[in-house]
Q: What sequence folds into this?
C-alpha cells in the first residue's frame, strides 16, 4: 500500500532530527479501529523505527483514553469518528498533544473524505479527493502508476529541517484555511488530478489497492 511508501519520507524526516531530540522519550498511539486497511501492518515499520529512537508506540482500536500519550496517529479512516471521539481528540490537542492525520488517494471514498474532513477542518485544512501529479518534475516507477511528484519547496520549520526533497507517492492534495501554514508544497506545474483518482490513471489502468 502506498502509505507504507510515503512513510519512508516520515522516517527520513525523523532521522534528520538532532540527536538530543531523538533521546526524548514519548508515547505514541496509532488508531487501527477506524480504517478498513491493515494499519497495524502498514505502519509496523514506522513503529519499529520509532521504538529504536526511544519512543513507545502502541496500536489500539479505541481512542477513548488519550491522557498517557504524546501523539495520536490517524491514517486513512473509513469509519467516521463519533462526536464524543472528536471531542476527545480536540481536548487532547488542546492540552498539548500532537496529532498526525494521514490521507491517501485511491483508498477513501468521497464519503470517507467528507467524514475525515469533519475532523481535519477543525485544524484548518481539508483533504481533497484527488491524486497529486507533476508532469514536469517527477519520478516514474511503473507505467501503470501516475508519475511521482518531486517536492523541494518547504517552510522554515523544525519538522522540515534538513529535508531537501520529498517523493510524494500517490498522495492527495489538501486545501488550507487562511490561518493554516503549509510545510511543503508543489511546483508550478503540480496539480491535483481528480479524474485519475476516481476513474484510474491512463484510462482505468491505475488500481490503487492492487500493488
A:
Amino acid at each position: 500500500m502506498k502509505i507504507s511508501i510515503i512513510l519512508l519520507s516520515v522516517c527520513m524526516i525523523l532521522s534528520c532530527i538532532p540527536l538530543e531530540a531523538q533521546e526524548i522519550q514519548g508515547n505514541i498511539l496509532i488508531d487501527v479501529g477506524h480504517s478498513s486497511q491493515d494499519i497495524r501492518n502498514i505502519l509496523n515499520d514506522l513503529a519499529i523505527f520509532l521504538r529504536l529512537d526511544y519512543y513507545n508506540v502502541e496500536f489500539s482500536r479505541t481512542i477513548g483514553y488519550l491522557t498517557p500519550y504524546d501523539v495520536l496517529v490517524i491514517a486513512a479512516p473509513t469509519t467516521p469518528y463519533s462526536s464524543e471521539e472528536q471531542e476527545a481528540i480536540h481536548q487532547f490537542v488542546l492540552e498539548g498533544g500532537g496529532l498526525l492525520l494521514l490521507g491517501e488517494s485511491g483508498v477513501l471514498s468521497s464519503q470517507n473524505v467528507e467524514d475525515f474532513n469533519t475532523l481535519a477542518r477543525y485544524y484548518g485544512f481539508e483533504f481533497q479527493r484527488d491524486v497529486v501529479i507533476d508532469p514536469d518534475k517527477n519520478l516514474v516507477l511503473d507505467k501503470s502508476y501516475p508519475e511521482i511528484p518531486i517536492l523541494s519547496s518547504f517552510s522554515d520549520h523544525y519538522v522540515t529541517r534538513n529535508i531537501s526533497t520529498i517523493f510524494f507517492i500517490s498522495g492527495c492534495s489538501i486545501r488550507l484555511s487562511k490561518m493554516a501554514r503549509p510545510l511543503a508544497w508543489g511546483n508550478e506545474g503540480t496539480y491535483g488530478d481528480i479524474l485519475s483518482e476516481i476513474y484510474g490513471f491512463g484510462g482505468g489502468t491505475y488500481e490503487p489497492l492492487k500493488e
Notes: Residues 153 and 185 are 6 Å apart (CA to CA). Residues 4-9, 202-211 have pLDDT under 50 and may be disordered. The chain has one domain: 2-204.
